[in-house]
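Dear Dr. H.,

I hope your travels went smoothly. While you were away I took the liberty of generating a structure for the chain from your last submission, since the lab meeting agenda had it listed for discussion. I wanted you to have the full record in hand beforehand rather than looking at slides cold. The sequence, exactly as received, is reproduced here:
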Amino acid sequence: MPRTGVQMKHRDIPEKTPPYQSYIVRCWQEHSVHAGREIKVWRYSLQNSHTKRRRGFATLEAMLVSLQAELDKSAETG
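The corresponding predicted structure, in token form, is as follows:
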């Protein structure tokens, strides 16, 4: 019997950016020696939960700048 409809497989559906962005933020402390003194510094990573891309940052400010740039880019292409 002939098919009356078109069947699409999951792999045939084009990949789209979801209408939201979801990230995993990780923060941890590392010990560092500066001028002969041991200090604790915070380190950060940001992982896009959709693409699984993960990047590390030495400062919170750097991570936030990068996140803002990703969100701006997503809004332009969205």
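Two observations you may find useful: The mean pLDDT is 84. The beta strands are 23-34, 37-48, 54-57.

With kind regards,
E. W.
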